[in-house]
Description:
alpha/beta; Rossmann fold; 2 domains; 5-stranded parallel sheet; 12 helices; 5 strands; 55% helix; disordered C terminus
Amino acid sequence: MGATTAAESVKQIHYLAASLKAPRITEAAVRLADQARDTGWSFEDYLAAVLEREVSARNASGARQRIRAAGFSAPKTLEDFDFDAQPAIRQQIAALASGAFLAEARNIVLLGPPGTGKTHLATALGVVAARQGHRVLFATATDWVTRLTDAHRAGRLPNELTRLRRYGLIIVDEVGYLPFEQDAANLFFQLVSSRYEHASLVLTSNLPFSGWGGVFGDQAVAAAMIDRIVHHADVLTLKGASYRLRGRGIDSLPSIRTTTAEPEN
Length: 265
Protein backbone atom coordinates (compact mmCIF):
# COMPACT_ATOMS: atom_id res chain seq x y z
CA MET A 1 0.00 0.00 0.00
CA GLY A 2 1.51 3.35 -1.00
CA ALA A 3 1.99 6.31 1.28
CA THR A 4 -0.81 8.24 -0.40
CA THR A 5 -3.23 5.38 0.02
CA ALA A 6 -2.23 4.97 3.67
CA ALA A 7 -2.83 8.68 4.26
CA GLU A 8 -6.22 8.42 2.65
CA SER A 9 -7.03 5.44 4.86
CA VAL A 10 -6.12 7.43 7.95
CA LYS A 11 -8.41 10.24 6.82
CA GLN A 12 -11.21 7.74 6.31
CA ILE A 13 -10.61 6.25 9.79
CA HIS A 14 -10.65 9.74 11.27
CA TYR A 15 -13.96 10.50 9.57
CA LEU A 16 -15.54 7.23 10.63
CA ALA A 17 -14.25 7.55 14.21
CA ALA A 18 -15.70 11.06 14.45
CA SER A 19 -19.04 9.79 13.12
CA LEU A 20 -19.04 7.12 15.83
CA LYS A 21 -18.10 9.75 18.42
CA ALA A 22 -14.99 7.72 19.17
CA PRO A 23 -12.14 10.05 18.18
CA ARG A 24 -9.52 8.04 20.09
CA ILE A 25 -9.87 5.22 17.56
CA THR A 26 -7.85 7.20 15.03
CA GLU A 27 -4.84 7.53 17.34
CA ALA A 28 -5.00 3.87 18.37
CA ALA A 29 -5.40 2.65 14.78
CA VAL A 30 -2.37 4.59 13.57
CA ARG A 31 -0.24 3.71 16.59
CA LEU A 32 -0.99 -0.01 16.42
CA ALA A 33 -0.76 -0.37 12.63
CA ASP A 34 3.03 -0.73 12.50
CA GLN A 35 3.01 -3.15 15.44
CA ALA A 36 0.36 -5.25 13.71
CA ARG A 37 2.36 -5.42 10.48
CA ASP A 38 5.66 -6.15 12.23
CA THR A 39 4.28 -8.97 14.38
CA GLY A 40 1.90 -10.46 11.85
CA TRP A 41 -1.38 -9.80 13.58
CA SER A 42 -4.51 -11.01 11.89
CA PHE A 43 -7.10 -8.44 10.87
CA GLU A 44 -9.24 -9.63 13.77
CA ASP A 45 -6.39 -9.18 16.27
CA TYR A 46 -5.73 -5.67 15.03
CA LEU A 47 -9.39 -4.66 15.16
CA ALA A 48 -9.77 -6.12 18.66
CA ALA A 49 -6.69 -4.23 19.89
CA VAL A 50 -7.94 -0.91 18.50
CA LEU A 51 -11.40 -1.35 19.99
CA GLU A 52 -9.96 -2.47 23.33
CA ARG A 53 -8.06 0.83 23.59
CA GLU A 54 -11.24 2.76 22.88
CA VAL A 55 -13.29 0.83 25.43
CA SER A 56 -10.59 1.24 28.10
CA ALA A 57 -10.41 4.97 27.46
CA ARG A 58 -14.18 5.30 27.60
CA ASN A 59 -14.35 3.38 30.85
CA ALA A 60 -11.69 5.60 32.40
CA SER A 61 -13.44 8.73 31.21
CA GLY A 62 -16.82 7.45 32.42
CA ALA A 63 -15.36 6.64 35.82
CA ARG A 64 -13.99 10.17 36.17
CA GLN A 65 -17.40 11.59 35.27
CA ARG A 66 -19.20 9.31 37.74
CA ILE A 67 -16.76 10.25 40.51
CA ARG A 68 -17.29 13.96 39.84
CA ALA A 69 -21.08 13.51 39.75
CA ALA A 70 -21.15 11.57 43.03
CA GLY A 71 -20.74 14.69 45.15
CA PHE A 72 -17.87 13.47 47.33
CA SER A 73 -16.58 16.11 49.70
CA ALA A 74 -13.11 14.97 48.65
CA PRO A 75 -12.22 11.85 46.63
CA LYS A 76 -10.46 9.20 48.72
CA THR A 77 -9.01 5.82 47.83
CA LEU A 78 -8.49 2.60 49.72
CA GLU A 79 -4.79 2.81 48.92
CA ASP A 80 -4.61 6.03 50.94
CA PHE A 81 -6.30 4.57 54.01
CA ASP A 82 -4.16 3.81 57.06
CA PHE A 83 -5.10 0.20 57.75
CA ASP A 84 -2.35 -0.01 60.38
CA ALA A 85 -4.67 2.08 62.56
CA GLN A 86 -7.64 -0.22 61.80
CA PRO A 87 -6.13 -3.68 61.19
CA ALA A 88 -9.26 -5.57 62.26
CA ILE A 89 -11.22 -4.45 59.18
CA ARG A 90 -8.51 -4.83 56.54
CA GLN A 91 -9.74 -8.18 55.19
CA GLN A 92 -13.40 -7.15 55.26
CA ILE A 93 -12.70 -4.00 53.27
CA ALA A 94 -10.58 -5.93 50.79
CA ALA A 95 -13.49 -8.30 50.19
CA LEU A 96 -15.95 -5.42 49.82
CA ALA A 97 -13.67 -3.73 47.29
CA SER A 98 -14.54 -6.47 44.79
CA GLY A 99 -17.92 -4.77 44.43
CA ALA A 100 -19.87 -8.00 44.87
CA PHE A 101 -22.03 -6.35 47.54
CA LEU A 102 -23.48 -4.06 44.88
CA ALA A 103 -24.67 -6.94 42.71
CA GLU A 104 -26.31 -8.46 45.79
CA ALA A 105 -27.91 -5.14 46.89
CA ARG A 106 -26.13 -5.49 50.24
CA ASN A 107 -25.48 -2.55 52.54
CA ILE A 108 -22.38 -1.48 54.44
CA VAL A 109 -22.53 0.20 57.83
CA LEU A 110 -19.42 1.83 59.27
CA LEU A 111 -19.66 2.57 63.00
CA GLY A 112 -17.11 4.22 65.25
CA PRO A 113 -15.90 7.36 67.01
CA PRO A 114 -15.22 10.57 65.07
CA GLY A 115 -11.97 10.70 63.19
CA THR A 116 -11.44 6.96 62.79
CA GLY A 117 -11.83 6.92 59.00
CA LYS A 118 -15.49 6.12 58.39
CA THR A 119 -16.03 8.83 55.79
CA HIS A 120 -12.74 7.98 54.10
CA LEU A 121 -13.75 4.33 53.72
CA ALA A 122 -17.28 5.18 52.58
CA THR A 123 -15.91 7.55 49.96
CA ALA A 124 -13.24 5.09 48.83
CA LEU A 125 -15.82 2.33 48.39
CA GLY A 126 -17.91 4.80 46.41
CA VAL A 127 -14.94 5.56 44.15
CA VAL A 128 -14.44 1.82 43.62
CA ALA A 129 -18.11 1.46 42.68
CA ALA A 130 -17.87 4.37 40.23
CA ARG A 131 -14.81 2.84 38.59
CA GLN A 132 -16.74 -0.41 38.23
CA GLY A 133 -19.46 1.38 36.28
CA HIS A 134 -22.01 2.14 39.01
CA ARG A 135 -23.67 5.50 39.53
CA VAL A 136 -23.01 6.82 43.03
CA LEU A 137 -24.38 9.65 45.18
CA PHE A 138 -22.80 10.89 48.40
CA ALA A 139 -24.27 13.25 51.00
CA THR A 140 -24.57 13.64 54.75
CA ALA A 141 -27.69 12.35 56.46
CA THR A 142 -28.81 15.95 57.02
CA ASP A 143 -28.38 16.79 53.34
CA TRP A 144 -30.33 13.68 52.32
CA VAL A 145 -33.20 14.70 54.58
CA THR A 146 -33.17 18.22 53.12
CA ARG A 147 -33.30 16.76 49.62
CA LEU A 148 -36.19 14.46 50.47
CA THR A 149 -38.05 17.23 52.30
CA ASP A 150 -37.82 19.49 49.25
CA ALA A 151 -39.11 16.69 47.03
CA HIS A 152 -41.97 15.97 49.44
CA ARG A 153 -43.03 19.61 49.58
CA ALA A 154 -42.98 19.78 45.79
CA GLY A 155 -45.19 16.68 45.56
CA ARG A 156 -42.57 14.60 43.79
CA LEU A 157 -41.22 12.37 46.56
CA PRO A 158 -42.30 9.09 44.85
CA ASN A 159 -40.58 10.19 41.65
CA GLU A 160 -37.45 11.19 43.54
CA LEU A 161 -37.25 7.84 45.34
CA THR A 162 -37.73 6.02 42.04
CA ARG A 163 -34.98 8.08 40.45
CA LEU A 164 -32.61 7.41 43.34
CA ARG A 165 -33.16 3.67 42.98
CA ARG A 166 -31.41 3.90 39.62
CA TYR A 167 -28.18 4.64 41.47
CA GLY A 168 -26.20 1.53 42.27
CA LEU A 169 -24.89 3.06 45.49
CA ILE A 170 -26.06 5.81 47.81
CA ILE A 171 -23.76 6.89 50.63
CA VAL A 172 -25.24 8.44 53.79
CA ASP A 173 -22.54 10.02 55.91
CA GLU A 174 -22.77 11.16 59.53
CA VAL A 175 -25.95 9.46 60.70
CA GLY A 176 -26.42 10.56 64.29
CA TYR A 177 -24.47 13.81 64.32
CA LEU A 178 -27.75 15.77 64.41
CA PRO A 179 -31.19 14.54 65.55
CA PHE A 180 -34.10 14.48 63.11
CA GLU A 181 -37.63 15.72 63.61
CA GLN A 182 -40.40 13.16 63.18
CA ASP A 183 -41.24 14.14 59.59
CA ALA A 184 -37.57 14.04 58.59
CA ALA A 185 -37.15 10.63 60.22
CA ASN A 186 -40.12 9.30 58.26
CA LEU A 187 -38.67 10.60 55.00
CA PHE A 188 -35.32 8.97 55.74
CA PHE A 189 -37.12 5.72 56.51
CA GLN A 190 -38.76 5.90 53.07
CA LEU A 191 -35.35 6.25 51.44
CA VAL A 192 -34.10 3.15 53.26
CA SER A 193 -37.26 1.19 52.46
CA SER A 194 -37.20 2.13 48.78
CA ARG A 195 -33.73 0.63 48.38
CA TYR A 196 -34.31 -2.45 50.53
CA GLU A 197 -33.26 -5.53 48.49
CA HIS A 198 -33.02 -3.35 45.37
CA ALA A 199 -29.83 -1.30 45.66
CA SER A 200 -27.03 -0.69 48.13
CA LEU A 201 -26.48 1.84 50.87
CA VAL A 202 -23.30 2.75 52.70
CA LEU A 203 -23.93 4.50 56.01
CA THR A 204 -21.53 5.93 58.56
CA SER A 205 -22.39 6.76 62.17
CA ASN A 206 -20.63 7.70 65.37
CA LEU A 207 -23.44 5.97 67.29
CA PRO A 208 -24.13 2.30 67.94
CA PHE A 209 -27.52 1.12 66.69
CA SER A 210 -28.87 1.39 70.24
CA GLY A 211 -28.49 5.16 69.98
CA TRP A 212 -30.37 5.59 66.72
CA GLY A 213 -33.74 5.84 68.44
CA GLY A 214 -32.68 9.18 69.91
CA VAL A 215 -31.53 10.41 66.51
CA PHE A 216 -34.78 9.59 64.75
CA GLY A 217 -37.01 10.51 67.69
CA ASP A 218 -38.92 7.25 67.56
CA GLN A 219 -37.72 3.86 68.70
CA ALA A 220 -40.19 2.02 66.44
CA VAL A 221 -39.08 3.91 63.33
CA ALA A 222 -35.42 3.41 64.22
CA ALA A 223 -35.94 -0.31 64.83
CA ALA A 224 -37.77 -0.80 61.52
CA MET A 225 -35.05 1.14 59.71
CA ILE A 226 -32.19 -0.77 61.29
CA ASP A 227 -33.97 -4.06 60.52
CA ARG A 228 -34.04 -3.23 56.80
CA ILE A 229 -30.50 -1.90 56.75
CA VAL A 230 -28.79 -4.82 58.50
CA HIS A 231 -30.87 -7.65 57.00
CA HIS A 232 -28.41 -7.75 54.10
CA ALA A 233 -25.41 -5.85 55.37
CA ASP A 234 -21.80 -5.89 56.46
CA VAL A 235 -21.39 -3.96 59.70
CA LEU A 236 -17.85 -2.81 60.45
CA THR A 237 -16.79 -1.17 63.70
CA LEU A 238 -13.81 1.17 63.72
CA LYS A 239 -12.02 1.84 66.98
CA GLY A 240 -9.45 4.15 68.46
CA ALA A 241 -8.83 7.86 68.80
CA SER A 242 -9.31 10.42 66.06
CA TYR A 243 -6.48 10.50 63.54
CA ARG A 244 -6.90 14.30 63.56
CA LEU A 245 -5.58 14.33 67.15
CA ARG A 246 -2.45 12.32 66.46
CA GLY A 247 0.68 14.14 67.55
CA ARG A 248 -1.30 16.78 69.45
CA GLY A 249 -1.05 15.25 72.90
CA ILE A 250 -4.80 14.58 73.05
CA ASP A 251 -5.92 10.99 73.53
CA SER A 252 -9.65 11.30 72.96
CA LEU A 253 -12.63 13.56 72.36
CA PRO A 254 -15.52 13.87 74.84
CA SER A 255 -17.95 12.74 72.12
CA ILE A 256 -16.12 9.45 71.74
CA ARG A 257 -17.04 8.45 75.28
CA THR A 258 -20.57 9.78 75.26
CA THR A 259 -21.78 8.68 71.83
CA THR A 260 -20.32 5.22 71.43
CA ALA A 261 -21.10 3.74 74.82
CA GLU A 262 -24.11 1.45 75.03
CA PRO A 263 -26.87 2.81 77.27
CA GLU A 264 -27.16 1.27 80.71
CA ASN A 265 -30.14 -0.96 81.47
